[in-house]
Specification:
The N terminus is likely disordered. The chain is built from 14 helices and ten strands. Helix 2 crosses helix 11 and helix 10 packs across helix 11. The chain has two domains: about 200 residues, D-Maltodextrin-Binding Protein, domain 2; about 90 residues, 3-Layer(aba) Sandwich (D-Maltodextrin-Binding Protein, domain 2), CATH 3.40.190.10.
Length: about 325
């Protein structure tokens, strides 16, 4: 198949034809809102590159990228029809489905985990085993405890031997001030910032210590939107894939496009973050989802208490464009 929702589109084709389609005039632009998972940063460079290059417009989509607010609950916005698409942390997608919100992942924005345990002193903490007896900061999210547990268990360290301090999303300040030995954070964001601040960090990336490789961030929609507008979803996926290709092949172009569209971003910082993603192979122009990777993710989430049971992969993700 060449389209994310191809099989669903085929099933709906006769029905759509019978009712005269979706009412839009041929060639009319379709409006869509995409809510980000976090404030714009280098993981989103492909989106902004695609927007600047007219990739969405070329496919007849008038896309608005919306930054999240403190009160944003993207799965609820999708379910209520207040946004057609959103970028979700894959763990949040699983949790939303457990709450009965029928969100569906349609593409991989990032192809590997971004979470890590970051040590503030690379000489004192050379391996995860050195974390025994240390003090580590966590945000308070279940996925953070899972990351810390996975890294420790892989090294044969009792997770209970590490004192945990809930610090929210303040890992940069806590580690740079020396208040903690380590903290859970994203290696592509906080990890880069800390290095640029001169903090001698060491990163224990979770997929190198016990966790499988899985797509950390996924582009998602609601089951209703996918059923009613499969071509819209597919066109956004295709355009986003083109934007990712630009971010990979022409990173300076992608960063320039994002900085131009988003106030307050600093070019050098965002380029450093994008370079970290590229070095790690975390971005791909092929943003399709891989069934086996999703199965491994689901088992890991259940084993580490993020989810209570493994979600049905075929219901949770649209796999028309499998990698």
């Amino acid at each position: 198949m060449t389209r994310v929702a191809a099989s669903l589109a085929a099933v709906l084709a006769l029905a759509l034809g019978a009712c005269g389609g979706d009412g839009a005039e041929p060639g009319a632009s379709r409006e869509a809102t995409l809510v980000l998972d976090f404030q714009p940063n280098a993981v989103h460079a492909g989106l902004y590159a695609a927007l600047a290059a007219g990739e969405y417009e070329e496919r007849g989509v008038d896309l608005t990228i919306r930054e999240p607010t403190a009160s944003t609950d993207a799965p609820k916005l999708l379910a209520a029809g207040r946004a057609e698409l959103a970028i979700l942390d894959i763990h949040d997608l699983g949790l939303a489905r457990e709450r009965g919100i029928d969100v569906v992942g349609v593409a991989a924005i990032v192809q590997r985990p971004l979470a890590a345990v970051i040590a503030a002193d690379r000489d004192a903490l050379r391996t995860p085993a050195d974390l025994e007896g240390a003090t580590a900061g966590v945000t308070g999210l279940p996925s953070d405890d899972a990351v810390l547990d996975s890294v420790l268990e892989d090294a044969g360290v009792d997770p209970g031997s590490v004192e945990r301090v809930t610090i929210g999303f303040d890992s940069v300040a806590a580690l740079s001030a020396g208040r903690l030995d380590a903290a859970t954070a994203f290696w592509n964001a906080e990890g880069v910032i800390l290095r640029r601040l001169g903090v001698p960090t060491r990163e224990f990336r979770v997929d190198e210590y016990g966790a499988p490789s899985y797509p950390e961030l996924v582009l998602a929609t609601s089951a209703d939107t996918l059923a009613a507008e499969p071509e819209l979803v597919d066109d956004v996926v295709e355009a986003t894939g083109r934007g990712h290709a630009t971010a990979i092949d022409e990173p300076a172009t992608a960063i320039a496009a994002m900085v131009e569209q988003v106030d307050g971003l600093e070019t050098a910082e965002q380029r450093a973050q994008l370079d970290a993603l590229l070095r790690a192979g975390a971005l791909s122009g092929d943003i399709g989802l891989e069934r086996d990777a999703l199965r491994r993710w689901a088992r890991w989430d259940v084993a580490h208490g993020i989810l209570t049971e493994s979600p049905a992969i075929g219901d949770s993700f649209a796999l028309g464009l499998e990698r």
